[in-house]
Amino acid sequence: MAAIAHPKRATGTLGLILHLIADPGVRLVGNVYLAEEMMRYTEVFPSETATLLIEALASKMEFIAVEGKYLKICGGYLGTSDQSDIAHAATCLSTGPTLISDDHHFDRIRDEGIIEVWSTKKAVDELLGAAREHGDKPCY
To answer: Which domains does the chain have, with CATH numbers?
Structure first.
């Protein structure tokens, strides 16, 4: 999950985070690298609210150990040697969820159809837009 970098998009991003936590139909899957990143967010944003959001995400998330074959496949498609990003893509390849990231080194693996990758904006538009179309009240 990308950090909130643009204040004007903060409301949409916060709404997305709350939707991911509250919607029982949303499955969150992560790995050890994502767990470490989430812990760093509690240090970067030292507030009770940030800690509660991270704890809520982590408690809903299924953490898996990614098999080497998925790491190898994804490593060949990413424009980075960053093991955490390779693991994030491999987690999605092995379990099926959509990766939400604004990092452009996921473009090739998305364009090749190996995994589905959405930008934060697309996730906000797709998930929150669909919730509004179904008459769901926003949870923020």
So the answer is: 10-130 (3.40.50.1010)
